[in-house]
Amino acid sequence: MSPPRNPHERSTRRDLERYAGLFSARTRVMTSSATRDLMAMSDRPEVISFAGGLPDTSTFPSETFAAMTARIADESCAKALQYGPTDGLIETKRCIADVMAAEDMLVDTDDVLVTTGGQQVLDLVTKTLIDPGDTIVAEGPSYPGALNAFQAYQANVVQVDMDSDGMRVDLLEETLDQLDRDGKRPKFIYTVPSFQNPGGVTLSLPRRKRLVEVARERELLVLEDNPYGLLRYEGDPAPTLYSLDGGVYVMYLGTFSKIFSPGLRLGWVVAPPPVLARINLGKQQADLCTSTLSQILVQAYFERHDWREYIDTLSELYRARRDTMLDALAEHFPAQAEWTRPGGGLFIWATLPDFIDTSDLLARALRENVAFVPGEGAFLDGRGRSSMRLNFSGANEERIREGIRRIGEVVKEQVALYGTLTGEAPQPDAPRRPADAGSESEATADESEGGRVVELPRRADRQRRARGS
Amino acid sequence: MSKVAVLAGGSSFERQVSLRSGARVEDALERLGHDVVAIDAGNDLIRRLRDERPDVAFVAMHGRDGEDGTVQELLEILAIPYTGSGVPACVRAMDKVLTKHGLIEAGIPTPEFFAFNQTAFRELGAADALPAIEERLAFPIVVKPSSQGSALGIKFARTAADVPSALVSAFSYDAKVLLERYVKGRDLAVSILHSDDGPTALPIVEAVPTGGEDDFYDFQARYEIGRTEFTCPANLPNGITDRAQDLALRTYELLGCYGFARVDLMLDEAGELFVLEANPIPGLTETSLLPQAAETAGIGFDDLVARILASAFARFDRANA
């Protein structure tokens, strides 16, 4: 009898089936969406994927990595292989303070807890604050990974619309009033103010100030998720919510994933001491402590190498890729499509005419070996069906051009088909170079670093229109 | 004991479900004492089958390639006996339009429908016929790709305004789509299993959407695990069970299915039954309907797999007798 080619893989998927009957209903819902099955198809090597959120780790100098690990072996081998304190090593916390100082934040290392990636912060904060049915207010669209973490604790998530200046804080206040009238007090507001995932937009300074005031007035916590703040490709940095608030109502989530390495799984949270103490308890239950080896690697890197220079290298690379993607979108997407122009970060949010469902479009696009994230996963209320998130950091410029060309082709095919079906003549696909990309929107894009954001199609509007005709 | 190649995975959109079906079948086959070779159907499929020289192939693939006759054709060329339906039945069953034309000709009730290729809209102005179709079928109308096996691309159009975008979605999966009259009622699945006395209908599984608010909710819930509960055997009025099983058997034989299959039906509020489609390789996972139906009939999963495997040999022996 010949052994299976990959016994490990085989037993893993067998186990899945063997124990399927024991899974909680909650996890069954998590794994059964048809879109998830589609997304699984984008992992094939022949697919140009804009679906991930991957930084380009191939740019990290391997000789630097070798020097770091050799030094750890020489100087701190035993320590690197040992457990560490739950809240993290003091040396790592000092590196974190440096990173935060780069965005003008002053932090006491006692207020920092080192975590296993930023994702663990989402889990721990939700675990600490949310009982089933409690409300969290988030942006619409939101980072799907955050929505998953919130849902895992059965939170009620309310999403507030955004425009090119980020979350509409006026709508946030209306939402909070409404929740108040309904007798619901949200536990926290979740936001990615800079180069939002997936929206690509940045919260303006006046709105940042107002958001912090709102939190104070209403005594609400804010979770500021800032993975991309240092990956800025143009314009002046806006102060973080944390620096505006001083850490009274704002909890801060940081990560080394996008500025150094996601493979290290190293993030952190800064929170008011009583909250942090609770988070610490949750962290103990989850994994006792964050990988000591990862923490020491960061320390070794920060001590001997210019981490800011590496961020500059990455920023330069991603800026070029962003520009390539924006140019390709202008060239290959039809006139009816719109997209954001991020001043930093990793993502562009594109919105197609509302007769295109991007989950179905993904199925068509996969036949052309190209993938993106359909927008519906960024909402919990059925919105986002005509939008998509495009990552520009993980593919080289040639693949970006080719991938966007392929998506553009299938979108144009669907626009033309829709035109045929409705008798509306499809609009001519005059390629829009950035230079002549509609004077109005171009002006807006120049004025506001976030670029333009299209109105997100509202489900209620769609239904009303459908019923009315 | 035989050497059995379990074919699963592939590159269809139902790859994930197929891997789960395949894994479960592998376990069962090993418990039955067979020598099992797991093959994720890819570029090296033929090479691996030639190298491994299995006595029989258990096809646990769903959707494109596995369920549409492609893999079956390759197995015919290699002269490897395989489970389930042969090439012609797969071709007919995977194509909903072909299936429905056959049903109508055989006098088996199926919801009224119209089907078109993209070229009909592009080159023949078929859009001009949409109002007439919509009037004939009456809203709501179900729009689906002809060949997609899972729920992907199936849309529910409440009004004329929903139809064009529903068609665009369905055309994302297939060059041929159908518009079908929506049958409001109960959702029944009849599984068929080969036995020594010929094909036998198993107890009926009913899918009951939980907490339904309206037709659209019910329609969507059917395709989302966790929003549907399954009852087996379905609690049906006198005579309906027999009639549903009879229609399913007739559908199975009409299409030329073999070994096992699942036929999906709707029971409307007036007590009329309609056949929606037949699945030549229905899911074999823990939560799939055919294993549930077999269980109710007192046929455990291992026994089910053993019977399906035996039917593959029986057909091959007969063909070579």
Description of the molecule:
The complex is a heterodimer of chains A (469) and B (321). Chain A has 469 residues and is an alpha/beta fold. Helix content of chain A is 47%, strand content 12%. In chain A, helix 4 (62-75) packs across helix 13 and helix 7 crosses helix 12 (273-287). Chain A is globular, with a radius of gyration of 23 Å. Chain B contains 12 helices and 13 strands. Classes of the chains: A alpha/beta (469), B alpha+beta (321). At the A-B interface, helix 1, helix 2, helix 3, helix 15 and helix 16 of A face helix 1, strand 2, helix 6 and helix 8 of B.
Structure characteristics:
heterodimer, A: 469 residues, alpha/beta, eight-stranded mixed beta sheet, four-stranded antiparallel beta sheet, 47% helix, 12% strand, B: 321 residues, alpha+beta, six-stranded antiparallel beta sheet, 12 helices, 23% strand, globular
List the helices and strands and how they pair.
The complex is a heterodimer of chains A (469) and B (321).
Chain A: H1 7-18, H2 25-31, H3 34-40, E1 48-49, H4 62-75, H5 77-80, H6 90-101, E2 112-115, H7 117-129, E3 135-140, H8 144-152, E4 156-163, E5 166-167, H9 169-181, E6 188-191, H10 205-218, E7 221-225, H11 241-245, E8 250-255, E9 267-270, H12 273-287, H13 292-304, H14 307-332, E10 338-339, E11 347-351, H15 358-367, E12 370-371, E13 373-374, E14 387-391, H16 397-422, H17 439-447, H18 459-468
Parallel strand pairs in A: 1-12, 3-4, 3-6, 6-7, 7-8
Antiparallel strand pairs in A: 2-9, 4-5, 8-9, 10-11, 11-14, 13-14
Chain B: E1 3-8, H1 15-31, E2 35-40, H2 45-52, E3 56-59, H3 70-77, H4 87-94, H5 96-105, E4 113-117, H6 118-123, H7 130-137, E5 141-145, E6 155-157, H8 163-171, E7 176-181, E8 185-195, E9 198-201, E10 205-209, H9 215-221, E11 228-231, H10 240-255, E12 260-268, E13 273-279, H11 289-296, H12 301-319
Parallel strand pairs in B: 1-2, 1-3
Antiparallel strand pairs in B: 4-7, 5-6, 5-7, 8-9, 8-10, 8-12, 10-11, 12-13
